[in-house]
Design goal:
Length: 256
């Protein structure tokens, strides 16, 4: 299960069912849950906890120091949930002292080759990051978000549930739940209706979300005015809650 050439610190907590490939290095503060499969030439270091049944492919670097000049070696951590797939050359850095101290990745995420998740990011579950997608520091990502190839988010941005970022789209402001962004520069192009269909949203729910998008982006109302209008619909259209909440939580302003 563990290749003889792998270097695993005696202090690391590695479940008996874990597989580790050749020439992989695992540091003393690492914890690997049941069923994890770690490929060859992987480096896992720092205070890093990885949940059950996560697979990490060759040449990934997980839990290394943050790429932040303010970092001075303070205690920080990386927490990765269960059932994640982390492909070749992915890099995920742990947190910083002044950014909360922890980088988090939820469950059942699919990170394709060359993705990067920077320090202090808080990423939910069931997300897909295609090749080369990148998150700068402190980015917050919800659930069921899709990042197309080479897309990404500027530091401190928020990306809401079920959003979609098109290829090469690097956003510098927040993207509410359900919104599809594409183009160069990236701009909102409607809602991620195809993704919502695949996840079981009804035609009526999708229609309501599309109308809510028009209120925020096409009505000419200011953000607070638009959200007040959507609040009045919430009791009859609870599916609007993620869009309302993510738009209201925006601190960098909504991408327009």
């Amino acid at each position: 299960m563990i290749h003889p050439s792998a270097l695993i610190d005696p202090k690391a907590r590695v479940h008996d069912s874990v597989e580790v490939g050749p020439f992989t290095v695992i540091g003393p503060d690492v914890e690997l849950g049941p069923g994890c499969r770690i490929g060859s030439h992987v480096v896992i270091t720092g205070q890093t906890r990885i949940g059950a049944n996560t697979r990490i492919f060759q040449f990934a670097s997980i839990g290394e120091e943050p790429q932040d000049k303010k970092f001075t070696g303070e205690d920080s951590a990386l927490e990765i949930g269960e059932g994640n797939t982390i492909r070749e050359y992915v890099t995920i850095n742990r947190g910083t002292g002044d950014g909360g101290g922890i980088t988090r990745l939820g469950n059942d995420n699919w990170l394709m080759a060359y993705c990067h998740i920077a320090h202090d990011c808080q990423v939910g579950s069931h997300n897909i990051m295609a090749n080369g997608a990148t998150l700068a520091g402190h980015v917050i990502v919800g659930d069921h978000v899709i990042f197309a190839g080479y897309s990404g988010a500027h530091q401190f941005c928020r990306i809401g549930d079920h959003a979609f970022l098109g290829m090469y789209g690097g956003v510098g402001q927040d993207v509410p739940a359900y919104v599809m962004v594409s183009g160069q520069p990236p701009r909102p192009r409607g809602i991620n209706s195809e993704g919502l269909k695949r996840r079981g949203f009804s035609p009526e729910q999708i229609r309501n979300i599309r109308e809510a998008y028009r209120v925020i982006y096409r009505s000419g109302l200011k953000r607070d005015e638009a959200l007040t209008e959507l609040d009045s619909r919430l009791s009859q259209q609870p599916e609007l809650a993620p869009m309302i909440d993510s738009a209201r939580a925006s601190e960098r302003g909504l991408l327009r």
